[in-house]
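step 3/5: co-fold with adenosine-5'-triphosphate
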Amino acid sequence: MNVVELVSVTKVYSGDVAALRGVDLEIGAGELVAIVGPSGSGKSTLLHMIGTLDLPTSGTVRIAGYDVGTLSDRELSALRSRHLGFVFQQFHLAAGVNALDNVADGLLYNGVHLRERRERAAAALERVGLGHRLGHRPDQLSGGEQQRVAVARAVVGDPPLLLADEPTGNLDSTAGASVLDVLHDLHASGTTVAVITHDRDVASWAPRQIRVKDGRIMAGATAGADA
Amino acid sequence: MSRLSPARMSPRDVLRVGAAGLRSRPTRVFLSALGIAIGIATMVAVIGISSSSREELLRQLDRLGTNLLTVEPGRTLFGGDAKLPITSTEMVRRIAPVTSAAATGELDATVRRTDRVAKAITSGITVRAADGELLTTLEGRVRTGKWLNAATGRYPAVVLGSVSAQRLGISAVGGQVWIGDRWFTVVGVLDTLPLAPEIDRSALVGFDAAERYLGFDGHPTMIYERSSDSAVNDVLAVLPRTVSPENPDEVDVSRPSDALTAKAAASGAFTNLMLGLGAVALLVGGVGVANTMVISVLERRKEIGLRRSLGATRGQVRVQFLAESLLLSALGGVAGAVLGGLATVAYAVSRGWPAVVPPWAIGGAICATLLIGAVAGLYPAMRAARLSPTEALATA
Ligand SMILES: Nc1ncnc2c1ncn2[C@@H]1O[C@H](COP(=O)(O)OP(=O)(O)OP(=O)(O)O)[C@@H](O)[C@H]1O
Ligand SMILES: [Mg+2]
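step 4/5: write tokens
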């Protein structure tokens, strides 16, 4: 089954900016895809559609089988809390809060008790190689470590789909590589991962690449079409 | 396919998230909570201090009793001064519920330290003939020396009220004062009598001595009377006719404790103005909280976006900021209630009053702060909840 299905999706922002112009896209369960394209081509907009953070102007977005356009705000929130994990270019960690609690907050809206949230947060941090940094605050961590904490927060609830918008954009190549390794491990353990990047080296690291230009998908709209 | 429904956040989690928001901005939280605290402290202290003062008056009333009545001659039909019959004290004693009664008679004589002090200088002290039962009836006490007895009541002996003793500069017994045209020996000084301040300003001589040495005609000018508490009103009703069967209209009866009762009732009067001031302070505090919350929402758009991406519903974002606002003002409210309580205790102790902070004042303070927190937080919380996730995340 496809985790992501977009059918003729368009997105027009106020001021007649057409960020997406008829996008058809399928991403299957367990895939690792890179979304690439020049700046302003609509990559982030596409990711917002997939992540249900915004609704398309027209067309259908189906995530984990749910038609996003028919869901209420509450249902969309529930969908995000259970099926989706996000990693942003800026890490968005709470300052002054240690890594463990930053990650535990990833489960805050899932109806999980604090104790279990912390247990699972510790496990998630272990998974991203930060088992020894549980008590460190963001300002005591390197950029790469902070982004791995953010990844741990995104996956602490075991979402089937992980979306990352330029997760290595603020990192040097070594730190970036460590984050990509973590994403790769997650993919290996069955999570569907979609990563936006405009770094060609990073892109070539993913088995499938979706090329976006001027709000259209130029290649990689379906699995195996471009490799 | 299962229906999607967001998980409920436990109240503890709501509080944790609200508290976390406050903890990240301690200075601002302290200052805006201080605004609320000042308002609440003012109101609690005003209520507490006036309650303490009322409590003190009520205890005083309790101690002094409300069963003391006084009888005085009023005016005659033609406007002259009436006189109480010589037998009136006896008549009052015969009223069944009356437990004790005593008379005083005002004299023309003045009291002076020595005969060399001019006659016109009275120092505001009145010389009165007092009957032996007076001290019992007033439940008064002798500070030094002795009260008049059958013997001293016949001789030139005098007992001074507390104020008289002070004005004459006398604190020990055995000395002499000049009354009328002869020396009287001071045999006692009385304690203060809150229900009979006129006695505090008197020099008291026995009835017999007054008749023999000071030309007293035997007509009482004031009769004090005590009865059982339950019978006070009945006694009040029959007193005029008992004292003066022919002219009951020429008799004035009053209840000295009424003045204290009125004072206790009025001790809430200045409170309203002060309460108003407290309310204004509280309002200003509330505006401070609202301001803090609006700024907080503006500054934390990214956090809001992140929480939405983690699965927070609009409602949960709204609740988060409302909880934060409620906690903020509750913090100020609790601090204010404690400060107000301490101020009340300090003031009451300094005045020797019992400290009373009524529970309803504390309850009202808590309700007021919660109301302020809710009102102040409502608009910022709505704004936070209305923010779309992408808008929030896109903030520079
Ligand atoms: N909220 C918005 N309002 C108006 N226009 C927008 C908005 N967000 C994006 N756009 C426009 O939509 C187009 C696509 O933007 P998008 O952010 O998706 O590009 P991108 O591929 O992610 O670019 P980059 O690589 O620089 O991040 C751009 O022309 C952008 O200016
Ligand atoms: Mg982008």
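step 5/5: annotate
Chain B has two domains: 11-61+261-395, 67-256.
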